[in-house]
Design goal:
This protein is of the alpha/beta class. The protein is built from three helices and ten strands. The structure holds inosinic acid (IMP) and magnesium ion.
Length: about 180
């Protein structure tokens, strides 16, 4: 589909599925080179947005790893509220471990910075950040974003796990808010 409408807004195709998968394969190849068999890191997928990315990423990992989920929310409509709600907390012991945070998108960074500190406080030896998408013009925080599949401009996007007020997550492609048709 070239265009979709969610609630009151119109979106146009931005990143097709094959391009998403190719960027994930490249990212996984980099991780396969960086992680050794001895690490057994804990991948911590940040729900809901990261479910598709986590699934496609993990299929390409060749080292041993564990997977767990955490659920937080900071977005309301098309803007970050800056306030993070923990909906499903950490239920795995991270003491002394390498934890890889798996995010769909890093925007202002409020989410990733808070999760980073929470994991450090819980005793994680190392926290690695991995994201499908990064908005470099919005991210001004100090936590290093170690693995980025794709960088995008400061636009609002949906699809491939990402939502607009909880809908639009199921699309295999990524769509961008079409400012021209939402005047
Ligand atoms: P941050 O805390 O501002 O970095 O925002 C991170 C979270 O906000 C992400 O995990 C997403 O769930 C959501 N988010 C940020 N940008 C977008 C977007 O363009 N579309 C949909 N959700 C977004
Ligand atoms: Mg998210």
């Amino acid at each position: 589909m070239e265009r979709i409408t969610l609630h009151d807004k119109s979106f146009r195709i931005f990143i097709p599925h094959d391009k998403i998968l190719k960027s994930i394969e490249e990212l996984a190849a980099k991780m396969n080179r960086d992680f050794s068999q001895a690490d057994v890191p804990l991948f911590l997928s940040v729900l809901n947005g990261s479910f598709m990315f986590t699934s496609d990423l993990m299929k390409h990992l060749e080292f041993q790893c564990e997977l767990s989920f955490i659920k937080v929310s900071s977005y309301s409509g098309v803007e970050s509220t800056g306030e993070l709600k923990h909906i499903l907390g950490l239920n795995t012991d991270v003491k002394g471990r390498t934890v890889v945070l798996v995010e769909d998108i890093v925007d202002t960074g409020a989410t990733i910075v808070e999760l980073y500190s929470m994991l450090k406080e819980a005793g994680a030896a190392k926290v690695v950040v991995c994201t499908l998408l990064l908005k470099p013009d919005a991210y001004k925080r100090d936590v290093p974003i170690d693995y980025v599949a794709m960088k995008i401009p400061n636009d609002f996007i949906v699809g491939y796990g990402l939502d607009y007020d909880e809908i639009g997550r199921q699309y295999k492609d990524i769509y961008v808010l079409d400012t021209a048709s939402n005047q």
